[in-house]
Amino acid sequence: MHIAIAGNIGSGKTTLTRLLSKHYKWEAHFEDVDENPYLNDFYNDMQRWSFNLQIYFLNSRFTQILDIRKSGKTVVQDRTIYEDAHIFAPNLHAMGLMSSRDFDNYYSLFKLMSSLVQPPELLIYLRASVPTLVNQIQKRGRDYENTIRLDYLKRLNERYEAWIGKYNLGKLLVIDVDHLNFGEKNADLSSIINKIDAEIHGLF
Prior knowledge:
It is built from 8 helices and 5 strands, in the order βαβααβααβααβα. By secondary structure, the chain is α/β, with parallel strands linked by helices. The longest helix has 26 residues, at 46-71.
């Protein structure tokens, strides 16, 4: 079974992936942030590196999904192949940070790849307001994230909401994280686990 966690930068995807992996004894697949050769360059010059970064992510996530399906294990995945194509790449294009030629090339590649893989059985979307995102981003203190602008996060949130509103590829669980601290409070984590249990039992 493939469970995926979606959400904006700083919404708590990695933390929740780690905690669910531990609780359910699921294998965790994390986003390849530390090994990503383009991230630093991208945040310094988005226009120059946006296409390279998105292609890197697309390849990385496609490979992950193939590995997940091949493994035959239950896997929880930090971020999905769909978020780049429906949120990050179109946002860069709309902001004038990716040319139409590059975006069209990227999107046709995404359509081909996504037609070859199965969507997750359960998608968990972490909904968070911009102040919550900023707070979490500052807390983890990644250098390259210091330059992320509020309007950038706001635009991404709007695109997330539009995408989630139309999502129909499988089961969807939306979790509002503004008033939760599942990383530190067991009661908050338990409430999420109860919701996930209810969804998973519905899968069988």
